[in-house]
Every structure is written in C-alpha cells, then in structure tokens.
Amino acid sequence: xxxxxxxxxxxxxxxxxxxxxxxxxxxxxxxxxxxxxxxxxxxxxxxxxxxxxxxxxxxxxxxxxxxxxxxxxxxxxxxxxxxxxxxxxxxxxxxxxxxxxxxxxxxxxxxxxxxxxxxxxxxxxxxxxxxxxxxxxxxxxxxxxxxxxxxxxxxxxxxxxxxxxxxxxxxxxxxxxxxxxxxxxxxxxxxxxxxxxxxxxxxxxxxxxxxxxxxxxxxxxxxxxxxxxxxxxxxxxxxxxxxxxxxxxxxxxxxxxxxxxxxxxxxxxxxxxxxxxxxxxxxxxxxxxxxxxxxxxxxxxxxxxxxxxxxxxxxxxxxxxxxxxxxxxxxxxxxxxxxxxxxxxxxxxxxxxxxxxxxxxxxxxxxxxxxxxxxxxxxxxxxxxxxxxxxxxxxxxxxx
Amino acid sequence: xxxxxxxxxxxxxxxxxxxxxxxxxxxxxxxxxxxxxxxxxxxxxxxxxxxxxxxxxxxxxxxxxxxxxxxxxxxxxxxxxxxxxxxxxxxxxxxxxxxxxxxxxxxxxxxxxxxxxxxxxxxxxxxxxxxxxxxxxxxxxxxxxxxxxxxxxxxxxxxxxxxxxxxxxxxxxxxxxxxxxxxxxxxxxxxxxxxxxxxxxxxxxxxxxxxxxxxxxxxxxxxxxxx
Lengths: 400, 227
Hints:
The structure holds 2 protein chains of 2 kinds. Chain A contains 14 helices and 12 strands. By secondary structure, chain A is of the alpha+beta class. Chain A folds into 2 domains: 194 residues, no CATH class; 177 residues, no CATH class. Chain A is elongated, with a radius of gyration of 30 Å. Chain B has a single domain, classed as P-loop containing nucleotide triphosphate hydrolases (Rossmann fold, 3-Layer(aba) Sandwich), CATH 3.40.50.300. In chain B, a hairpin with a 2-residue loop joins strand 4 and strand 5. The chains are: A alpha+beta, B alpha/beta.
C-alpha cells in the first residue's frame, strides 16, 4: 500500500510531476553520458600511455627512475628475465634500452628519447605498429632502421628511407653518432609520445651506445587485476638492487589526471543531482503545504509520525527513482550510440594525448555511483519536508 | 459500564496571554452503545471536547479514562497507537484519501494495524454492503457524492471495530436525504456493532435522532438529557 499510495500521490499534480521528471530524466541522462565520456577519455589516455610506453610492469636498476643515466643498466638481465618468466601471471617480457639523443636531418634537429627494442617481443607488448601510417615496423632488410612519428618526420622534413643522424652520449661519456634510415612513420593518439620518441633495433642502439645490458625490462601480464600481486611477487624474487614499478607508478601524472577526472565526475554528479534535489525539496514542501489537512487526518486516525515521515520519503524516492531510472537508461542508450559513432573532441586537446574522436564506454561503476549519490541526496533533501510533515498535529484536521 | 469517563477536564488556550477556557471543568461519562449528540453554538468548546476525548489534543488539567485507562497520561506515540486501535473518527469534510478507492480507504486503518488481507477484505465487504455502497467499492472519492463519501468515512471509522466513534459535525455538508441516510446507517451500525457514537452537531435532525443530548456552552455542560 505504501508504494501504491506514493505512486498515486505523486500523480495528483501531473504537470508538476512531469516537469520534475523531465528535468530528472535529462539531468541523469546527461550526467551519465558526460561521466562515461570523461572516464573514457581518462581511460584512453592511460591505456595509450601504458600500451605505447610503459606496459604493465617495468624493472630497472635501483635509481634509474631518478636520473635515467645510460650507465644504470640492469646487471645479469638474462637471469632477471628468466626469473620474471617463472611468474605465472607474466605474459611477455621485453628488454629495452632508452636514452636521450639528438635526431638531426639536413633541415633540422630535435631532442628526443631513443628506444632500442627487440622487434619480435616488442610487437607483443607495445602497440606502436598499429599506428604506422607509412612503411613497416623495424624491417630486417634495411640497415639501421628507425621508426619516427609523423610529427618528427614533418619537423625534420623526412620521408620513408630518408637518412637521420642520431647523436648520443655513450657509456664512456663520449658523444657518438649513427646514421639510421626511416623504416616507418607512426602517428599515435599521444602527442607527447610522438613528439619525443624514436625507436630503433635493440642491437643497433647497443652497439652505438656501447651498452652491454638493457636499462629496462618491460612486462605484460595476463590478468591486469593482479597487477600489484604480480609486482610484489616479482620484486620478492629479485634483490634490492632492482626496482619493479607498475604503470601507475611510472605514469603518476596520468594517474593524477584520472583521479582528478573521477573527482570532477563526482562533483558534477553531485551538482546535477543537487539541482534536482532542490527542485524535489520545493515540490515536497508544496506537497506538505497542500496536504497539511490530510496529514493531520492520517495522524488523527492513527498513522504514526514515523509512517508519515516514511510516506513522504517514499514519494520523494519514487519521484527521483522514476527520473533516475529512465534518465540512466537514456544515458545508457546515448553512450551505446556514441560508442559506435564516436564523439568529436576539440582538436587542440591532442596535446594532452586525447584522441580527436572518442568512443565512450559504459562504466558500471559510474551507474552505481550515480544511483548511490541520488539515493543519499534524495533521503537527505526529502527529510526536511518529511520532518515538517511529521510534526503536523492531528488536530489540524478538525475545525477550530 | 462506562466506556469513557471524563473527570474535571479543562482546556485553556493562550494561557500566558489572553486565556480562553475552551473546556471548563467538565466531568462526563459515556456508556457502551450510546448514541450521543453534543450540541452547542460555534465556539462553545464542543470540538475541543471531542479533540480531548479522541486524544488528539491534551488537556490543561483533568483526565480522560477510556475503558478504565487514563489516556491523558499516554505519550504521543502511545496515544497515536491507542487512537488507531480504539477510536474511529468521522470528520465534517469527510477527509477520505482522494487517491484511494472506497475499499482502500475503508481498509486503510486495518493496514496500519497490519491485519491480514483476508480479514481486511471480509470486513470491507461487510461494511460497504451495510452502507449501501457495495457497487462503488472501486470508485475514488471524487466519483462519489458528498453523502456517499461520508458513508465511506463512517465505514472507515468502524473498520477496525473501535470502542467508540467521534464524529465532528458529520452532516454539516449534507442535504436532507443524505443526512437521513447517514443517520440511519450510523444508528444501525451503532446497534449492530455495539459501538458508542459521540458527535457534535448544530443539526436539529441529528439532535432529534440522538439518544442522549449534551448541551455545551462556554466550555461547560449546561444540560445532559437521555431519551
């Protein structure tokens, strides 16, 4: 009877209820869609950075993360790789060399980070090859091949098979240079990666820099939910000389951005629902005002204060629930459509690693968050008029 | 045996500013099955007296005993529960819940009492048949005439088999025929159900049908006659 009564009561004023429900419907739909879009942008930045740069876990010599010195290589790297491969959750292990360099063409020069990778394993751990726009991935039939980004190619005015001179400081602290040939040009969604990275064969860079061992071992894991567990498992098998970091530690700025996006999402939801909440409070106040006599009658015939309170909360709850459920469903449909057709994002944002077209995904935790916030705010806001109703004296129903 | 006993009941409004003695040292008793009219001019204090008897207002002094229990000492929550289980109310403005059907209005208090569905349905059918509205069981109040609404209100007041029913000017908004019909029903239920009826009224037709008439003036009983 309580829910039936609440349902019928809210339709006593059809216009008022319809206006509120429309506001709630669009409010919830937009909140859900926007939150999904924001979360997807954040997730895409993290995924891109992880897939292009860090992979799930990395091993370095202790201290390498602080100054990235070329001499801080991983001692006994092959032993370390063997030990890492013994972990059941490890999928792929790749060794890398990475150092700062200057890339020059007859037209221009730029500072960059040069990465030496083993093409076979690197292809399994990184997604750079998926973003090749010209050429091929570190082809074996070319001497000293190099992959550069479209941005670098434009800056240095290079084409496929063009020569590019890489200058760097080797492990003997000498400046050395090598001539590479452009084997492929990539264009990833990450502007910082594209502007800063060139990729060469591991052995070529090893030779150029006189480097005996890798500075980085990248690890892709099978079950990403066991990231921390795998990280500590690997760290336990290695001595304190080695440092194992997960991608969240390696990309603190992106992690902070994700936390910021989550916070903005919560605030945005609170603001939208708070707006609806005040509208709801206004409606509930009107309801109490209009039904003072009726509530007095209910108190007179024996309805307890608590029942009056819960009756009003129920009405507010039913109102908000209809708006929330229909709005969330509509937001879900909007997100589904957008996940197929894409949402164009302002072109200037590619500097932040945001793709020009986003395909938002539906995040179940966002739906749960929206529902929880809506529920808490509804109870908090509707409690005020419900409390007023509860205090109506039963003799309000009788003539003075 | 007395169902209701009022001893030295007093209700003073605006005690600290301009005191008004709405009920002034009234002592009365009502027996089971009584059909009593409280008569008096507007402002004589009859509604205040009904509020005090019905436990929806508290006396300044004095006590109300119902079936020997001093209800003036009950807490607000206990009094609410006591009203729900022992007292039926009929109001001048009918005060049916507009969103509920006749049947749902009648069974509302039984729902508050958490009576089983079967028992509720049986009782509602009996009462709506008694008041001649068996065919209006699923109608909402807006579809019923004033007289029909007041009959449903009487059925609601009796649904939970209260010890007594308080009716505040129950015929004030009814035409002659509806008044006569309602009085017939109330009399019949008074006899059949054995429920005590106390009602305030200005209406001579009601006074004529009452078995006991208490005349109220300036918060005091000035006559109390049984027929």
